[in-house]
């Protein structure tokens, strides 16, 4: 269902997702936020791999642990010196709905897009070149850096290292992190050199993207419309 | 005839120690020079000097007859000199093979369609057209090597600098690499510690020891030898 909303053109897709998330962030009533979450969850059913929501779940959980006990208001429950307030619980629920709804929007709109394509789209939207380049190159080299960490850790284990809570372990992990950063810097330097050898002078040769079609614009209008309706419902 | 690469009295130091000591070298238009030497002899540093990635403390570098000193001097010549890095992962930074091979032509002003055509042509010439849409970081070591080379050939260079071209390569891709290098119509510096591979391709050879070059002779003679090797059972 959400496929009808998502514009095919990546630039417009980024804009649409941005507008919708911006609208979601303005909601201040739990029923509206809850309804928004429900609508988005139903719409994106089968399109968004739900396990990817794990990345935000920790944050949502933290909200539920912290907010009810820190926001003053009508007490609901007393645990020793801690008091759980109705207002805090409501605020946590509101924020959770907004966070999850926003995450669903981002996953549905951009979850399956390759970072490099996203980089080209961000470039087309006139984002600063260095930011786009960092964004596009990070995923490519993250795998290599991860491999490097794995190899270093295996080599440590092979020499009998057993992590524990002691000075030796902390120092060893400190060295490991330092070494990974040094190697990443070295790698960055060599990648830059290899790019310069192939004639790179600081401007990424992104291919021009085709003009967005009518269907793409319709997606933006529908998505933005949904956002505006939500904000109006929240205000009214 | 003007040499494509001319180095004279090059000295490079690193951390106070000399890596290259007054090294001189001339590379002719069609010459294939093999430089063989142990690890740490300064072979990679020599190649880095040629494309201006390393600055000598003394000596002169001339590319195609033009003296080169700073980054600006080297820039216009880099597309004419293909430098194969020792570690393929340093070179392959685009998500797909076709995009990576097209990177060079795009930098030199080719259109998107033109760059793609040249990329596919380079891949075809190396016999790896089937890799075009593959993701670069999931390739095997040998495939990465050939894709890197395709990225250089797509720029139609006049000189190839190959730093340990046989690094991490398997037998099948080794044959493709050798065929591609034999077919390359230009000058070449092959740097390796694998004397067997480079000696077969080169027209001239030099030995590198402690930052200096000495002329060497390539000769081919039958050896009467025995060595252990493996065959499948049965």
Automatic annotation (TrEMBL), chain A:
In the bilayer, the protein is annotated as: Multi-pass membrane protein
Coiled-coil segments, which residues? Answer: none
InterPro entries xrefs: ABC/ECF_trnsptr_transmembrane (IPR003339), ECF_CbiQ (IPR012809), ECF_transporter_component (IPR051611)
Keywords annotated in UniProt: Cell membrane, Membrane, Transmembrane, Transmembrane helix
This protein's record includes keyword Kinase: no
Query: Could you list the residue ranges that cross the membrane?
Result: 59-80, 92-113
Name the Pfam families on file.
Answer: CbiQ
Which biological processes are named by the entry's GO terms? cobalt ion transport
Q: Mind telling me which GO cellular component terms the entry cites?
A: ATP-binding cassette (ABC) transporter complex
Chief location of this protein within or outside the cell: membrane
Q: Where in the cell is it found?
A: Cell membrane
| Stated family | Belongs to the CbiQ family.
Protein name (record)? Cobalt ECF transporter T component CbiQ
Organism of provenance:
Paenirhodobacter populi
Q: Which gene encodes it?
A: cbiQ
From TrEMBL, chain B:
What Pfam family is a match for this entry? Answer: ABC_tran
PROSITE patterns the UniProt entry points to: ABC_TRANSPORTER_1 (PS00211), ABC_TRANSPORTER_2 (PS50893)
**What keywords does the record list, in alphabetical order?**
ATP-binding, Nucleotide-binding, Transport
One GO MF term, please?
ATPase-coupled transmembrane transporter activity
Q: Which residues form the ABC transporter domain?
A: 5-233
CC per GO annotation = ATP-binding cassette (ABC) transporter complex
Alphabetized Gene3D superfamilies for the sequence? P-loop containing nucleotide triphosphate hydrolases (3.40.50.300)
The record's similarity note reads: Belongs to the ABC transporter superfamily.
Please give the name of this protein: ABC transporter ATP-binding protein
Q: Which organism is it from?
A: Paenirhodobacter populi
